[in-house]
Amino acid sequence: MDYMKDLLLNLLILLSTMLIFQVAVTDRYRSFYDKNKLKLLFFIAIFQMILAMVFTIQIQGQFIYDFRLIPILLGGLYGGPRVSIFLFLFLLAIRMPIGGAGVYNTLYVFALVTITTSLLSSMYKRWRTKDKLLTVMLLTILFSAASFVFPIFFMGFDFDPYFIFMFAITQTIGAVMIAFSSELIIKNHLLHMAVLKSEKMEVISQLAASISHEVRNPLTVTRGFLQLLKDHNIEPIKRSYYLDTALEELNRAEVIISDYLTFAKPHPSDINTIYIKDVINKAVELIIPYANHYSVRVLLDGKEDAPVKGDASKVQQCLINILKNGVEAMPQGGILSIRLDITTNFCYIHIVDSGIGMTEEEVARLGEPYFSTKEGKGTGLGMMVVFRIIEGMNGKVEIKSKVGKGTHFIISIPTIKI
Q1: For 353, phi and psi rounded to 5 degrees?
Q2: Which residues pair with 396 in a beta bridge?
Q3: N or C end of the chain, less CB within 10 A?
Q4: What CATH number is attached to the domain comprising 332?
Q5: Which of 176, 197, 218 corresponds to the end of one domain?
Q6: What is the chain's mean pLDDT, rounded?
Q7: Is pLDDT of 317 > 90?
């Protein structure tokens, strides 16, 4: 029974390291795992081998038995010949200084393991999980038995049949369990990557549909008015109106395309030290004529100023997008207030409207592609631009809103010292 405690301890150590590896590496650092699969496999196999050899069972002071076969066998099958050979050399470097007749046993058994895994690795990776587990089971039984052939038939050592049986069975169960865990880790990773790819394709599809729809409308209008201009008998006033309308529609198409390009390239391209109050003043000056059209009163508060790192034109674009949305949320008129608060490390821009407001679900979806609260009139690109630009400045956008009471945007941006 003392043997069983040591064997089960070996098995527990190996299973624990697999669990820790999955939680600490593959689930949290997926890109790192993708780039360094073979290196990670090699080091986890070495780590498992060392832990297995710390808790060993010594027979007559000559032979050392543990579950080092499992990481070497699976490391070779999943990693290929290079990993298999390096694991074999590392094992010899650890085992040979210990000495004893068991060195020769280790040499011939694990030489066979290295040769076998190197030959099977390329085929093994293409097999189904069921076939892989069956292969691991058969190979573990075979090599477990081989580890007793040399001492029994060539050196005349007498082993307890119970120990041989329990060692082979426990090691085989452990190898199959760890192989199955490895398959789950690989499949979960592939599934996660497939989901990410699917989500990216969906976003691209939605953006393409949005851009296509929004750009086609102004182009269609422009085409219609240009066709009307072919009439030489048209009145000068109408001609001027048609030209102005066509230009306005082309400008609208340009704005949509610019928003899309800003979303595709979120980080500000021209990073300079800017003073946030100046940017706010310019944005307010530009939005006031639009606000007057909706009978919206714009109030600006904040005498202090603060330097930040960013692109003035991009920050101004963010503010105009939010201010414009605030104005449009008050079709019957209202108050749009902008307040600037400065603290030691941050500046806070508060933009509050008294408009129709949003539900919690709508607030949570702001910034998603192709989502807009404008009932088919918007594309959602404006808010995506806002979130991306502020994130590129290491800032944050917080939104509070209640239906029928209005919306409160809080933009926080880190300040710098000059």
Answers
A1: -120, 160
A2: 412
A3: N
A4: 3.30.565.10
A5: 197
A6: 81
A7: no
The answer to whether 157 and 151 have CB atoms below 8 angstroms apart is yes
Q: How many whole angstroms separate alpha carbon 368 and alpha carbon 263?
A: 11
Residues 51 and 186 in one domain: yes
Rounded CA separation 38/114 (Å): 16
Write down which residue in 158, 176, 197 finishes a domain: 197
User: Counting every residue, how long is the chain?
Assistant: 418
149-204 pLDDT, tens digit each:
877 877 767 777 888 888 888 889 888 988 898 888 888 877 877 777 776 676 66
Distance (Å, rounded) from C-alpha 18 to C-alpha 9?
Answer: 14
Backbone angles phi, psi at 158, to 5 degrees: -110, 115
Instruction: Kindly tell me the burial class for residue 106, based on how many C-beta atoms sit within 10 Å of its own C-beta (0-12, 13-18, 19 or more).
Output: buried
Half-sphere exposure of 78 (CA within 13 A, CB side): 26
Domain residues for the domain of 193 are 2-197
Question: Scanning the structure block, which residue is given the tokens 């904040």?
Answer: 302
If one counts every other C-beta atom within 10 angstroms of the C-beta of residue 2, the result is: 7
- Terminal alpha carbon distance of the chain: 73
Does 270 score more than 50 pLDDT?
yes
Question: What Cα–Cα distance (Å) separates residue 112 from each residue in 40, 109, 122, 238, 257?
Answer: 24, 5, 17, 91, 64
Each residue's pLDDT tens digit, 384-411:
778 888 888 889 999 999 998 899 999 9
User: For residue 177, what is the domain's CATH number?
Assistant: 1.10.1760
Contacts of 160 (CB under 8 A, 6+ apart): none
Please indicate, yes or no, whether residues 167 and 305 belong to a single structural domain of this protein. Answer: no
* Residue 120: DSSP 8-state: H
Give how far the C-alpha of residue 318 lies from the chain's centroid of Cα atoms, to the nearest Å.
26
Q: Based on the domain organization, do 189 and 281 belong to the same domain?
A: no
The number of distinct structural domains making up the chain is: 2
| Beta strands in 215-333, from DSSP E residues, in sequence order | 272-275, 296-301, 307-310
Residue 299's nearest CA partner among 286, 289, 284 is: 284
Alpha helices in 294-393 (DSSP H): 312-328, 360-365, 381-392
Question: pLDDT confidence of 268, banded at 50, 70, 90?
Answer: very low
Cβ within 8 Å of residue 79, ≥6 positions away: 38, 41, 42, 45, 121
Specify whether the CB–CB gap between 311 and 273 falls below 8 A: no
**Does the pLDDT value for residue 261 go beyond 70?**
no
